[in-house]
Amino acid sequence: MATPESNLGSTIFSAIVPAPFGYVGVRTEHQYISELVYLPPRFQDKSPSDLVAELAAQQIEHYFADPDFPFDLPLKPVGSEFQQKVWKAIASIPRGEVRTYGQIAKHIQSAPRAVGQACGANWYPLVIPCHRVTASGGLGGFAHHDDETGFHLGIKRYLLRLEQVPEYSKPESTQHQEAMW
Length: 181
Hints:
Blueprint: H1 4-12, E1 15-19, E2 22-29, E3 32-39, H2 51-65, H3 81-91, E4 99-100, H4 101-108, H5 112-120, E5 133-134, H6 151-162, H7 172-180
Parallel strand pairs: 4-5
Antiparallel strand pairs: 1-2, 2-3
């Protein structure tokens, strides 16, 4: 049964693409992708309403089938100069690797907290893979969320496993048992 939230999604997104954790909402504006949003399973898929949304949907599906797939989408320019600097650094992290907020901060001569804020403000998750940025002592937050059992950190864990990041590629039950020791 459709919820009011899922119906609203069909009006504000140009496409809603199924993902292993729920959906990815795609918003377009004037031949650009203007936003990608992680959506929970209560949403419903929506066929692309324009060519740019169709391109995004195809590339998102390719990524989930092969995390080495390189995105090539027309992204609407957004963010401050600082955020763009952080996002450029994040985009250079290879699949299968992570960097800490501190490592990114050192690379761009900033502070880890500022890097975390820029990561959380990322309009294009997956394309700019902010899930590849972790805290020095563990997973860290994701999309301005840090609830250990929440939806967004579940997505971050899933994406790191999909990309075969060694410390996140083990089954979750094994990770939990090792954390207890």
